[in-house]
């Protein structure tokens, strides 16, 4: 994978916002998924595994990334998919994963809740043989190690580091590599107050704060205000945002700037963690509900 990154700056009246384009790292394994998989793939190879098994939902960026990385690095891949009623023929994310060679195994949402139990994993080994297991969302110590590499020495100029939060691995890695003067702001895509405990399993510092006001109702939930914002942002800047993670983060940052949250003169770095593959799936849902679509045209 070739790392391709750039910073894009935006001037506001009182602060400066920069976007770190981690989404440009790789066309299919972009942003934090590249970072999370980097050391896991190296470990799988070191342990002589030829098969990777992981978990995810219908529009999972992680599932798509593992499938693409498996194809590129010659691993067999198995995706345990939440929702036995789903079909890859109806879903662009799962279609892509299957086209990369991933074997998809659909299970009920009730069974999925037990995915981390030893007996459940033993049954998977009986069914699929030996494999290297990567958790849902990709977060484990090796993933956090990879995410810590998002920040470079040049990024010490920033006062705030912002990122979207799913399973917490990305913000934990950023927390571990941030400079002492920097504050991290995480924008959860999920509704609930459980994430801090998850992040603290991997983060060595208490330099982060979760801004829980911009989840728009929960994971995968959006409204027309967010759609309009994402479309206007792309029209103005040329940068696409996904509706599940980065769209909510940038919406939140812009709102906080307007409310005077940041000290005058602050320099803010927002990490674009990719996830753009999920736009097609979201648009299919929006179309079925006769709601406005997210712009995907250049």
Key terms:
298 residues; alpha/beta; Rossmann fold; six-stranded mixed β-sheet; four-stranded parallel β-sheet; 37% helix; globular
Structure explained in plain terms:
Strands 1-2-10-7-8-9 form a 6-stranded mixed beta sheet. It has helices at residues 31-46, 61-72, 92-99, 109-112, 118-128, 141-147, 169-177, 195-200, 224-237, 246-258, 278-288, and strands spanning 7-11, 16-20, 51-56, 76-82, 103-107, 132-134, 160-165, 183-188, 208-210, 267-271. The protein is an alpha/beta fold and 298 residues long. Helices cover 37% and strands 17% of the residues. It is built from 11 helices and 10 strands. It starts with 6 loop residues before the first strand and ends in a 10-residue tail after the last helix. β7, α7 and β8 form a beta-alpha-beta unit. The protein has 2 domains: 7-27 and 141-288, Rossmann fold, CATH 3.40.50; 32-138, Rossmann fold, CATH 3.40.50.1100.
